[in-house]
Amino acid sequence: MKKGFGAILFMSALAFGAFACNEAPAIDNSPINVEITTEAPEVKDGEVYVERNLGNNPMVGDSLTGEYVYGGDPSILVDGDTVYLYTGHDVSTDAQVKAAVYNIPEYLCYSSKDLVNWTAEGSVFTVSRANVSWVKDSTSAWAAQATKHYSKAEGKDLYYIYYCSWDRTSAGKQSIGVAVSESPTGPFVDIGQPLVKGVETSPETSAWNDIDPTVWIEKDEKGVEHRYLAWGNGKMYICELNEDMISVKDLNGDGKITCGAKGESADIINNQDGIKSFTEAPWLYRRQDEKGNYYGDYYMFYAYGWRESMAYATTDDLLNGDWKFGSIIMAPTATSNTNHPAVFDFRGETYFVYHNGSLPGGNGFRRSACIRKLEFNEDGSVVFMTESANGIYGSAFSIALAGDEAAKLSHVTYVNSNNDAAYPYKDIKVGINKGKESEGHWVIVDGKADRSNDAYVSIQSEDKQGLYLTAGEDGNVRLAQDADASEETALKQTFRTVKALDGGDGVSFESVSQPGKYITVDADNLLCLTDGKDAAKASFKVTED
User: Which of 314, 311, 274, 319 is nearest to 296 (CA)?
Assistant: First the structure.
């Protein structure tokens, strides 16, 4: 990412770690310092340089070489001053994507101290027949979450990754597993058997009810530690773990682990009354005060309906309390049929991590982790949010006709469809004031066809992440997903920035796939490609929002 200058971003706030530790985390009052060193742009005569966005989603996976690392079902572990991101490694081929086959052999880990610069820590746990005795295959490392806990037996902190996979010892159903490591970056070693077998959560509605584990650890008002594990698809389960973190607690003391609706008669609780349209991907969370102490209700964020929206419910008692539905907080993404939340606190802010298919070639089987801030209303309800191509730093841009700053580009107003047949999006209209103000924010990045050319840009919608201005062969310019990661698509989604055709100090955008053709506003105030003779309609001002 090039800029004409270096930039340092500061986020000042009281800081604390997240829920990974047993005790209230220590306060770190230092701001997040993000330093981005950049090179001066080099453009030819007749070209202009347009500023790029400082920080962009996805968080990781863009190799800048065209070889992308996909990873979905993100989870977060905060350990001191470091944030660890874990994803399943999506490696489905085009043929497997067409056949709706997940190919996820392992979990990848990334670390960061500022949420912008991420270090790839590599594979931390491979879920294969050779590595895990009970799994059915070597392609099903489904959603996981890692946590840290002090082991009394070992006399030191250990790290635990809770995961799910197809279980050949459990009637071929999905089961919940756990693997242990002395480091957050692995290697993790499976305990040799499932933590929760799929056959233990009867009655079931499918063979994949037991997926997507999430873990929560805290001490109650009496100083007693509780270690909760929740999971589920279609049905939501929760239990308490023993101090060893690798076995389910016998809540009713009857000497066996059973599943039921209440803790008086069962150890694995299936009580989802009040949780609307629960699909999968639960994530447990509780708010913290400035000293790092937990307070208020427990939140469970989860995937809602299909295609998957994000929603939440709350309770005052994870095991025995009634759930109260909150609201939908994010619509289905523009590029993926599934989604998976992770919510965490870091240095005084709350963040929401999700996944989509916004990298080139991405989709619901080749996903990418993204981040944005999460906000609460005064009553504790969660503020609705959109995807954010811009991420958490910097700001997006407005693009307006050079002769009329009120004539801003925006995409038409629409809600991402619940119908799988509507995807991938490839023909979303863009024009002058065609949508709401929030739909007129744009993320400008180096041109996908040649990132080294300072006069090349690609322009992505801020709230419809993964959709780019695309030069069509029919002469229209529409928002479209880069669904195939091809050279042809990269060319269509790249524009050369030249001096404004109207002679002013703005910019005109020449199509790289159709040289000599410029983005122009037509008589219907929609974008198209022309030879630029109507210079006023082909000249734009780009301003930072």
Answer: 314
